[in-house]
Amino acid sequence: MNPDHDPLLEVTDLHAYLGDSHILQGVRLTVPRHRVTVLLGRNGVGKTTTMRAVLGLVRRTGRVVFAGDEIGQEETHDIVRRGIGYVPEDRDVFHGLTVGENLRIAERRGGRPRYDLVYELFPELKNRTKHLAGTLSGGQQQMLSLARGLLNDNDLLLIDEPTKGLAPVVVREVVDVLERTAGQTTVLMVEQNLAVARRLADHIAVMVDGAIVLNGPATRLADDDETVRAYLSVESAISGAGS
Ligand SMILES: Nc1ncnc2c1ncn2[C@@H]1O[C@H](COP(=O)(O)OP(=O)(O)OP(=O)(O)O)[C@@H](O)[C@H]1O
């Protein structure tokens, strides 16, 4: 079956609230299987909140269907157990723990952690299992954060702004790692760096003021400069992501 017609994740009429603010206002989004979908939009439009709403981390209403099951009312721990991993924006590694310990505490109970896969994808981490995570570079911390998401057998990874705040040379490294990650699982990713988005995305979703205004093949990014200018606070030529 065409994966675009059998999405892994399908969100309909999703509303979310932070305090008194109505942040997501009827989000509709599909994420095809085995693809990278990049969620784009200006600062503050609700991209992070969309991921957190899918995970049940914010108050929300609406329909969220994952692998054919409705999960819009479920608690976060049940959603995560279904095979959705989260790599948050701030990387969230424990600086005072070693690389190995950071991985160990990410193991899902009852699961079979995939250390072989993780160390094959991230040899730099294998050489540093006894190093404190706080001593790693920003790029290595991002790798550790991605490795934690891949350690469990997740079907979907939600990755929030993985290249944010990284130097151009490190961005390139992380993009390579993201490409390897995307070979393993379906990805929904927030990314503000347009060059990175263009390199990785098969599918895009563009968000404006708490709603999705465009959800389709990534070719729209390549040949539709008007879309880019109208909706995104990104520049179309950003060095550091490679070609
Ligand atoms: N605790 C909160 N209470 C009320 N409003 C909040 C709270 N946290 C965030 N917001 C607002 O919710 C909106 C959506 O935030 P969100 O982080 O989802 O946007 P984003 O598109 O991911 O932005 P960015 O690219 O800056 O990370 C923003 O306008 C933000 O100011």
From TrEMBL:
One of its GO terms (molecular function) is ATP binding. InterPro entries: AAA+_ATPase (IPR003593), ABC_transporter-like_ATP-bd (IPR003439), ABC_transporter-like_CS (IPR017871), BCAA_Transport_ATP-bd_LivF (IPR052156), P-loop_NTPase (IPR027417). The keyword Acetylation does not apply. Keywords: Amino-acid transport, ATP-binding, Nucleotide-binding, Transport. It comes from the Bacteria. One of its GO terms (biological process) is L-amino acid transport. Residues 9-234 form the ABC transporter domain. PANTHER family: ABC TRANSPORTER ATP-BINDING PROTEIN, HIGH-AFFINITY BRANCHED-CHAIN AMINO ACID TRANSPORT ATP-BINDING PROTEIN LIVF. Belongs to the ABC transporter superfamily. This is ABC transporter ATP-binding protein. It comes from Planotetraspora kaengkrachanensis.
